[in-house]
Structures are given as structure tokens and as C-alpha cells.
Amino acid sequence: MYQERGLKRLGITIIADILIFAVCGVFFAIGRLMFFSSADNNSGAGVSLPVIMYHSIYSGSPGEYIVTPAQAESDLIWLRDHGYTAVSAAEVIAYTEGHGELPDKPVLITLDDGFYNCLSDYLPLLEKYDMCAVMAVVGKYTDELAPADPHVPAYSYLTWNDVEELYNSGRVEIASHTYDMHSLKGRRRGCTMISGENEEDYRNVLRADIDMLQNEVYSHIGAYPEVFAYPFGGISRPSISVLKSCGIKMTLTCYEKPNIITRDPDCLYGICRYNRSGLYSTEEFMSKLTGE
Ligand SMILES: [Zn+2]
Predict the structure, then answer these.
(1) CA 275 to ligand 1 center in whole angstroms
(2) Using an 8 Å Cβ cutoff, are 255 and 36 in contact?
């Protein structure tokens, strides 16, 4: 009797394990189909592209989202000494569209949120080491927060003049980080769909926000952003077609995974990035990013 019950329980456990395994497998497969299908479909071809995500570059205490200028410089030295070449998003986009080649060891450097210190403390480093980066600005921060308290390296955001200066340096492309959806307050997480929200309503809300910043950036630098960074890495599938229709050719996530860039432009929707936390040494971070 005891043995029979034990066997029955064992059987139930095995069935439950199989079910959990199957459900996890389905979610994993859906996730891969949504974000990584093109990148994984290359048959041995394609170029590996590690992508770094910085936020604030400031000479205070390092943190999860704060890297000191000394750390940022040490990162650039490491990349140079290990044969990496910083590429622009435009070069990567052109490659997927069949134009040009990428260097042997490309790296894409991204800067999120639009901190002023990226102009005051990081642009000189990009110039010193002949590298380039992509800056993702939040429209409302640049419109309202930056002019209210500008040019304090610890916390100020870029003003539109600063954005223009970064862009005119020829080393920094301007990307969108939404006009006003960089928030975890309320029911919406970043620019994700709210549970139960009508899909068409969501598309309209997102399109209005994205278009607003596209037009504002264009009015200042004469070019529309082609790169979009999802706030907090939060993604809803309907966002992809909306972003495409707004002229976005590359979307950046916070999944920490390598990327394979192919000649298929669709491989750029869902680019994975490694957050450069100031709590790691350059060697620790680069080992995670590149495996070297
Ligand atoms: Zn952000």
C-alpha cells in the first residue's frame, strides 16, 4: 500500500516536472521567436556585436548605474588594447541593409537617460580614444528637468544645446528613450502595455509619444533617431511595429546576451546589452561582455 502510494506520488511528480518543463520550454521558445529569431537564424554567418550600456559617468561613488570617468577610461583602454573598434549604430544598420562591412571586433557603446556628465566627462574620452557612442535621451527630461538645473555633473540632464553639441561632435548619435514613458509610477512600466489594455489604444499612446520625440530631436539636430532604447528594458510585442513605423531601425533591450548581426535588418529589433555597473572592475565587466 505504502509502496503503491509512493509510486503514484512519484508518477505525479514526474508528470508535474514534465509539465513545468514543457511550459518553460514554450515560454522560452516564444521569447526567442519574439526577440532573437533573426539573430539566431544565421547559418554560421554574421558578426558578433557586444553592446555596453552606460548611464551616469560621474566622479562620485560608483554604483549600479554610475561609472566613474576613470572606470570609463579604463574600459576604453581595455577595448582598444584588445582590438575592439567602436561602431556607430548607422554603420551597423547599413551592414544589415547590405552596405559595407563591420570591423573584426566591433563594439557598440550606448548611454541611457541623457545625463549631462556624458557630455562633460565622457565625450573627451571618446575623442581621446577615437571611439563613438549612442546617447538615448528622454524628451521630457531634456525639455523640463535640464533647463531647470543645468550643467551639474552629478545629476543634470542634457539641455537641447548639449544634445546638439554631442551630435555635432560627430561621435555621438542621438537615440530615443521615449518622450515621457521613462517611469515606473502608475500602472504602465516604461512603455509596456498595461494588462488588459486595448492593443489599438496602446499603439496610439506609444506612437504619439515616440513621434513627439522624433520630431523634437529632428528640430534640433536635423536628423530623426533611428535607435530606440526601451525604458527599463520593458517590451511589449505590439511596440515593434509602432517603432518601425516611426522610423526606428534598431531597438535596445536590457537582456544581457551576445548579439549576432546578419545582413537581415530585422536582427536589430531586440539588441541585447550589458549594463556597465560601476561595482565591477573593467576586467570583470569585459570578461562578462566579451568572454575574454
Ligand atoms: Zn533609462
Answers:
(1) 11
(2) no
